[in-house]
Amino acid sequence: MTDNPIFAVAAKAEALRAQGADVISLAAGEPRAATSTVVVEAAVDALRDPATHHYGTAQGDPALRASVARTVAEETGLVWIADDVQIALGAKHALFLAAQALIEAGDEVLVTAPGWPGHAEVVTAAGGVAVPVATDEEFRISAEALDNCRTPRTRAVILSSPGNPTGAVHTDSRLQQIAEWAERHGIWVVSDNIYRAFDYTGTYRSILRVAPQLRGRTVVVSGVSKEHAMTGWRVGWLAAPPEIIASARLHVSRTITHVPTVNQRAALAALSDTGTPVRAARDYRRRRTLLVEALNGIDGINCPLPDGGMFAFPDVSGVLRDRGWTSSADLAAWLLDTARLAVVPGEAFNAPGRIRVCFAVDDETLITAIERLRTALGPTEHEAAAQQLEEAR
Ligand SMILES: Cc1ncc(COP(=O)(O)O)c(C=O)c1O
Questions:
Q1: pLDDT band, very low/low/confident/very high, at 390 (cuts 50, 70, 90)
Q2: pLDDT band, very low/low/confident/very high, at 311 (cuts 50, 70, 90)
Q3: Residue 181's pLDDT band (boundaries 50, 70, 90)?
């Protein structure tokens, strides 16, 4: 079993930093901002409350579950109550619990390619087989592509919108088609909405908003990690039909007992702090443009403007060709060695010829990273002078 390749890059960058190297990491998929003071203060208050020093319930704090239910209700336009929600150790654990509930050994689950490796990992961990489904040129999946990969063992599809690493936001008509396909073939939909706050075109919609009839075979997964810069706090959730929640609750009870109570209180405070995700989305939107324009200014790089999420996902095949490299991993290794800049090679996402660059860092860090990219991959002084001469003719 191999570990998530994103962590491998982030760990190498961290090791170099520990040796004193001035490394900028745009590798990890997390906001670099600190968690908001409101949330930190709520956690400090929770620490002082002896009630948090003892066991809680496996399904999670009722107040947090009620708050999550309200959020999911707002997002889907359907009625959800606290009983419909299971609190997990982050969205990844929620995906793991959903996979454990849904999958029998040998069941197939469709995941997008390019896509986040964590989706395939939870499927494999549950004894299932992750089947990559190719996306279109805008990185969206279609009912047709899903159907080409369907077999009698197909149990579920994991849909992430906005996506990681692509930022693709699925349109209403696509979601409608996918929902009809899932309904027709009795396939479950796991809807991973972790990046929903980072929607730069205002087109994000939950599949359940578009196709409420899918409620009985949909698991909604999300959490506070990305929206509230709380990746280290490990709080996420799933909202699902009773049989999935019952399975998840039992799994939690038999393993971790419950998510640490102080962290659940912090997540509860985060859900009332609606300003933080809005401000983050405004900042990321600006940084997205800055990064994408800079990448497109480099010869051999072609970067689409992502509709959502926290990543630029450029095609770097021109650079690889010019420099005689065979994979994006060569480029990523070279950028780390020479420019002290960490990015994730596309191979990690089933997308050779691309790299993933996170723009959820502060302006100053991003601007320095862009300068490093330009110096490393832009024309040499000699080439620039020759180009100027050519243009002057
Ligand atoms: C699409 C997607 N889902 C889930 C997660 C995991 O989120 P969490 O940190 O809450 O486990 C990530 C993290 O990168 C992600 O990209």
A1: confident
A2: very high
A3: very high
Domain assignment of residue 141, given as a range: 54-273
Q: How many domains are there within the chain?
A: 2
Please count the CA atoms within 13 angstroms of the CA of 33 that sit on its side-chain side. Answer: 21
DSSP, collapsed to helix, strand or coil, labels residue 85 as strand
Same domain, 69 and 158: yes
> For residue 393, how far is its CA from the centre of ligand 1 (angstroms)?
52
Q: Which two tokens stand for residue 244?
A: 């999935």
Q: Which protein residue has the closest C-alpha to ligand 1 atom 1?
A: 164
Q: Is 10 in the pocket of ligand 1 (CB under 6 A)?
A: no
* Residues 228 and 147 reside in one and the same domain: yes
Ligand 1 atom closest to Cα of residue 94: 11
Strand, coil or helix: what is 275? helix
Which pLDDT score is estimated for 5?
66
Residue 323 lies in a domain: yes
Buried b (16+ CB within 10 A) or exposed e, 34-52: ebbebbeebbeebeeeeeb
Write the CATH number for 336. 3.90.1150.10
SS3 358: strand
Mean pLDDT of the chain: 95
pLDDT score of 2 more than 70: no
